[in-house]
Structure formats: structure tokens, C-alpha cells
Amino acid sequence: MSLLRKLDWVLVAIVLSIIGLGIATFYGLGSKSTGIIDRQIVFTAIGLAIMIMFSFFDYRILKNHSTASIVIYSIAVALLSLALASRAIRGVSSWIIFGNFTFEPAEFAKLAVLILLAKYFSQKHVEIYRAHYIIASGIYMLVPTVLTLLQPDLGSVIVFVILWLAMLLFAGIKRKHLLVILMLSVIVGMIGWFSVLKPYQKDRIISFINPYLDPRGSGYNTLQAQVSFGSGGLMGIAFDKNTDQKALVPEPYNDFVFAAFARKFGFAGVILLLALLTALIARIGFIASRADNNFAKLFSLGFMTIILTHVFVNIGMNMGLLPITGIPFSFLSYGGSHLITLMIGLGLIQNINLAART
User: Fold this and answer.
1) Rounded to whole angstroms, how far apart are CA atoms 170 and 77?
2) What is the CA radius of gyration of the chain?
3) What was the pLDDT predicted at 320?
4) What is the pairing mode between strands 101-103 and 96-98?
5) pLDDT at residue number 97
6) What's phi and psi for 85, nearest 5 deg?
7) For position 241, what pLDDT does the model report?
8) What pLDDT, on the 0 to 100 scale, is given for residue 1?
């Protein structure tokens, strides 16, 4: 019990508050709301238990032993490969399916890549100026990225790439090397546009630029998200009994949860949500600043990057500022794979905090 008292319960309270806002958003959205709320509560309880369990897992095992990070990474790659061989859902092979249970390995892979890169850069940061170290780290990122792109899951691909670039920056990459990487990224992006992206993915990008070109087709989701976001006003419709609570957007529990949230709780609710997210990032940043080794600092900063990427990309696509890529809003969206993976990461953050205090 003494160890439980030492956990950062403020961090836990912030996370549970965001999850609670998501559950409140789901209420009354449609016929599936009750079942989704019940499952999200179960996911939250499981995630909280897992977070506590990993809080007492000595993260220094990952710091001190390369084998541990390589095994975790290898498992993630194997699961991504298995997902490609599994039954497709709506044309996407992103899930491993066991009866009524589905697991999205790309979420676990993000954490696995983070652990491996944190271990790698904590050893090589002094020599990060050497090109072959940058290339090696890029290969670690590229393997799960290609497997995810083949599913196809463009949202997770974006997270992998941004995580890698952020870790390079945190490790101290030279500006000229970063410029070369960005130029190569543009070239790869052009190749991907003509050779990899499927027609519906291109339509999403084109409709993002001008959704009115096809308002009832590829531009429909973007326009509906904007309508939903704007209809919340200052205080939202949550307490207005005369307004239909049902969602105006498709996938209000996942991809467009922010638009559904903004409609339900208005501008005031959005400010509260962003304040909680700011507090969460500040709390993790504080823990990173207290860490006494490079692995812990890099892991904490990389974990912040994963959360921020999910949040900003989801907000951007909900407001019509970014193409629709299908990416959950961390802690707010419905779903077990992303939430439980984040809870594992938070558990490791808690252990880093405990180690820094002893």
C-alpha cells in the first residue's frame, strides 16, 4: 500500500477525467451508445489495473538490456504481420480477430518502437551525427511503418514517422541531417501518392483541400465534422432537452469524437479538455525533467509525442485543417487497443517517477 501511495495520482486523475469526458460524450449519440459506454468503462478498469501493474515494473530492465527492447519490437512486428493475414474489416486489415475480440497491433507497435528508439538513442546520442546511426534508427521505424501502410492505416503511419523524427530531435540530430531527411520524406511522399495510396485515401486528401468538390461523397465527413463542431456554441447541447443528442458525424465514438464532444459541450468544454491535456503533458514533461538517465528522458518525451500526435491530428481532421486519416483522440476516443497501450506507457512513466524519487 505504501507503494501505491507514492504513485502520481494527480496524473491518474487527469487521465481519468479525460476518459470520463469521452464517456459523457458517448451518452445519447445513437443506438450503440449504451454498449459502447459499458465496454469503455471495462477498458478503463482493465487499463487502470495494467497501469498500476506496470508502475511496479522496473523500467531499468528496458534501459539496461537491449534484448528486452528487441523482443518487444519483434513481437510487435510479428503481430502486425499477423494482422495483414487476418480478415479485413471495411477493406482494412488492421485487426487481429479472436471471435468477438479484436486487437489493433499498430497501437502496441507504437509503444514497442518508442521503447526500442529510446534504448537505441540513449546509447548512440553522443554519436548521432554519424549517418549510419540515423539510417539504422530509420530502419527500425520503417519495418512497422511499411507493414502498417500495407493494411492500410495511414494514421498510424503518420504517428510512426513523427515519433521517429521527434526522437531524432530529442537525441540531438544535426540540422543538415534533418534537412536531408525532410527532403527524402517529400520524395517518398510523392512516390507514395502515385504508387501506394489507394483511391479513397487520395479522395480524402483532395476533399480536405476543398470538401465542396464532392459534398455528398468524399467531402461529406469533413463538412459534417465542421457542422458538428460549430453547432455546439458556447456551452453545448448536453443539457438542452429540446435538442436531439444524436451525432451529426459518422464514427462519433472514434475518428470524429472531438466534433461530437465539441457539439455536446461547446467551446467551454473544449477549453476544459485542452486544459486537461495541457496538464497531462506538463506532468509527463516534469517527470521527464527529473529522470536521471537518457533512456527515461527519451521514453517520456517520446510518449508525449505519441499522445500529442494523436490529439493534434484528430483535432485537425475534425476541424477540416488536416486530411481524414482515421486516428483516435488519446483517452477521449472509444477503443481498447489504444487506451490500454497508453495505460502501459503511463505505468512505465509512473515507474520512472518512482525511481527518480528514491
Assistant:
1) 25
2) 20
3) 78
4) antiparallel
5) 81
6) -90, -5
7) 73
8) 57
103: β partners:
96
Q: Are 257 and 332 in contact (CB under 8 A)?
A: yes
> Amino acid letter at 10?
V
Distance between CA atoms of 341 and 299, rounded to whole angstroms? 14
Average pLDDT of adjacent 10-residue blocks, the chain of 358 residues:
82 97 91 91 97 94 94 96 81 77 91 96 76 87 93 90 92 78 76 67 63 60 74 80 72 88 93 97 96 94 97 89 84 94 97 87
In 3D space, the residue among 4, 23, 63 whose CA is nearest the CA of residue 257 turns out to be: 23
Coarse DSSP helix, strand, coil percentages of the chain, rounded to the nearest 5 percent:
70, 0, 25
What's the DSSP call for residue 215?
A: T
Q: How far is CA 93 from CA 140, 251, 261, 325, 338, in A?
A: 22, 18, 28, 15, 16
For the chain, helix (H) and strand (E) counts, in that order, are 14, 2
8 Å CB contact between 269 and 53: no
Task: Please give the grid coordinates belonging to residue 60.
Answer: 531499468
Give me 154's grid cell: 495511414
Residue whose grid cell is 465542421: 226
- Comparing CA positions, the residue from 311, 316, 331, 318 lying closest to residue 230 is 318
Own/partner contacts of 129-133, CB < 8 Å, gap of 24 or more, are 129/173, 129/174, 129/177, 131/177
Beta strands in the chain (DSSP E): 96-98, 101-103
